[in-house]
UniProtKB/TrEMBL annotation:
Organism: Desulfotignum phosphitoxidans DSM 13687
Domain (Metallo-beta-lactamase) ranges: 137-326
Matching SUPFAM superfamilies: Metallo-hydrolase/oxidoreductase (SSF56281)
Protein name (database record): Outer membrane protein
Keywords: Signal
Span of the signal peptide: 1-29
Any Pfam family: Lactamase_B_2
Keyword Signal part of the UniProt annotation: yes
Domain of life: Bacteria
Cellular component, GO, one term: cytoplasm
């Protein structure tokens, strides 16, 4: 079909393309400063110049917005985002584009028969953990979309099966981004579930049909009895929802210490000296759940998301026994394909001859027995 021409005689498609070219030309003329100056060496130097003491510094500005005092987040404008989306040139092989975690069948049936302490990967940053007959659920996300991005792999089991098999559960929320705090999922979980959230999220989560929401600040600790402690720890990230202004609520990671096992749930973060401090302050971490997602392009993502080498470095600094990669294989959030980080991590392990037995690259629905 031929293009419909406008009154001036030019095809409509050509007019649109001309506009896009003008926009692109204008964007290329004002390439974001961060894109122009970013190098891995410069980024590493910026991190090295930060001070561990600032991990303990006040982190709320006068306008009520939270920030990371060791390295405040660079401001990114709409043009920065548009420049990234319209000028991305990263290419991936067919294998890299197709790679995804397996989705194991019959998860509910296997879960019902599992004894002892375990880790179950539901998908993305949603893990079900059982320790001494107590259940913990991290960043529950069972919906088909995280606001806009659609799942490329389904959750390991339905939320109905979960609530049937796990009548009492503790929920950990790391921050308010839609792939970590899903309103539809939260409303379907038991109303009396005990929910732990960073500062600013108590009232929003209570509105998601929850009656026991406990708000915590960085470095705050709760004694949950029977030798169990939960500690809220800093990370380098940000927060925003349509109904919640940028950085109006806090973001965090969680350390769960029990008499038998210690687990670090890292949430979303860029690489920072917090890992070194956590390892020093809380020795004996058994499992570290480390984010491996959305790290391309590096000039845009480095502050908020670690690449694979940084995630491994953070894991080593934590002094943890086992690395559990999170947030890969479910949503396409960065330039890289959704499953790419899992493949990238496997390649890193092989190329750097690290001990592969310490890395638990799980399939969706896999139930990992804890040592």
């Amino acid at each position: 079909m031929r293009s419909r021409k406008n009154k001036g005689g030019f095809p409509g498609r050509a007019l649109v393309m001309s506009g896009l070219l003008l926009l692109a030309g204008g964007m290329f003329a004002c390439t974001p400063k961060e894109k122009q100056t970013f190098t891995e060496a410069l980024w590493e130097e910026q991190v090295a110049q930060t001070r561990i003491s600032d991990l303990y510094a006040p982190h709320v500005a006068e306008d009520g917005r939270f920030f990371a005092p060791w390295m405040p987040m660079p401001d990114k404008s709409f043009l920065d985002v548009a420049w990234w989306k319209l000028t991305s040139s990263t290419s991936y092989t067919q294998e890299e584009q197709a790679f995804l975690p397996a989705v194991l069948p019959d998860t509910a049936e296997r879960l019902a028969q599992t004894k002892g302490d375990f880790i179950l990967w539901v998908g993305h940053n949603t893990f079900l953990v059982r320790v001494n007959d107590t259940y913990w659920l991290t960043d529950p996300m069972f919906s088909k979309r995280a606001l806009v991005p659609a799942r490329v792999t389904p959750p390991a089991l339905t939320i109905e099966a979960l609530t049937r098999l796990v009548p009492e559960v503790n929920i950990l929320i790391t921050h308010n981004h839609y792939d970590h705090l899903d309103r539809a999922t939260m409303k379907q979980l038991p109303p009396d579930a005990r929910v732990f959230v960073p500062l600013g999220l108590k009232r929003p989560v209570e509105k998601m049909n929850k009656t026991d929401v406990r708000e915590m600040d960085w470095w705050e600790e709760q004694d949950l009895g029977a030798g169990v402690r939960l500690i809220c720890l800093p990370v380098q990230h940000w927060s925003q929802r349509i109904t919640q202004g940028r950085n109006k609520t806090l973001w965090a990671s969680w350390l769960l210490i029990t008499p038998d096992v210690t687990l670090y749930f890292g949430g979303d973060t860029g690489y920072f000296k917090g890992f070194e401090e956590f390892g020093r302050k809380f020795p004996g971490i058994d499992y570290a759940f480390m984010a491996t997602t959305a790290y391309h392009p590096r000039w845009f993502m480095a502050y908020n998301h670690m690449n694979i080498s940084e995630a491994v470095r953070g894991f080593e600094e934590l002094g943890a026994k086992y690395f559990v990669p999170t947030q890969w294989g479910t949503f396409h959030l960065g330039d890289e394909p959704a499953g790419y980080p899992g493949l990238d991590l496997a390649r890193y392990i092989a190329e750097n001859q690290v001990d592969a037995s310490r890395f638990k690259i799980m399939d969706i629905g896999q139930i990992l027995a804890m040592d």
